Amino acid sequence: MDSTLQRSAWQIQRDVIHALLVREMKTRFGKWRLGYAWMLLEPTMHILVLAAVFSFMGREFYPGIPTMLFMLGGIAPFLFFSHCFGKSLAAVESNRGLFNYRQLRPFDAVLARVLMEFAIYLFSMVALLVILAWFGVSATFNDFLLLVVVNLLYLGFCLGLGLALCVAGERFPEAAKFAPMIQRPLYFMSGVFFSLEQIPEEYHPYLAWNPLLHVVELTREGLFASYHGHFANLPYFAFCALGMLGFGLMVYRSQWRDLVRSR
To answer: Do residues 69 and 224 make contact, with C-beta atoms less than 8 angstroms apart?
Structure first.
């Protein structure tokens, strides 16, 4: 009997995701001269620009944490969100020809893109922490378990968001034009270059609705022992992450057949 007929559904799914990941990596980095170095160059350029601005102001941004490390704790998580947002909108259209294969569905395309961005996010975060430490820019590490929990929840949040956006991007192609209008304000409202404790408390109830702000605050709390993330709320973010994942799965389940059939 042909060995392919003996494969389980899990093995088929694993092979499909692996093939999509390889395809996404080649598409994402293969056409650029810088190639895979762009994984580190993109967050590095953000960090250098922000660090230069605050160095010009002549002060350390957060006591006990070098400015470059502080910025890394905000930029790396936000870039993961930003890339998932943009790529999920185009996930169906970019992979439409592959849906002729019975084993492959839009869910696989979104999952592969989110997993790839998550791997890039973790790699760039760890690599830049090591590089900065090698140059003498370091801070006392705090809580590895908190980082694991936050990032697993964050992965679920972005997967749910990606599933909902892949449906929105197919149903409403013009939605891609509004993506920058949504992401830019979030860049300034998600704690990428500030700490919530540095903002007057009367604004906290409004900013605290933003789940990305809690991701950044909790990430910095897990990374740096001297960071006091008293305003971060892990239960609230867990609720947002599970709610977004459930919402994304529900929207996708109700529309996936139409996504495959649409041309």
So the answer is: yes
pLDDT tens-digit readout, 80-134: 999 999 888 888 777 777 777 777 788 888 999 999 999 999 999 999 999 999 9
Q: Classify the phi-psi angles of 156: left when phi > 0, otherwise alpha if psi is within -120 to 50, otherwise beta.
A: alpha
How open is the CA angle 181-108-151, to the nearest 5 degrees?
60
pTM value is: 0.89
CB atoms within 10 A of CB 19: 15
- Beta-ladder partners of 65: 62
**pLDDT digit string (tens) for 189-224?**
888 888 888 888 888 888 889 999 999 999 999 999
Q: How far is it between the farthest Cα atoms of the chain?
A: 72
Distance, in Å, from the CA atom of 220 to the CA atom of 154, rounded to the nearest integer, reads 14
H or E segment at 191?
none
Query: Can you tell me the distance from the alpha carbon of 23 to that of 55, in angstroms, rounded to the nearest whole number?
Result: 41
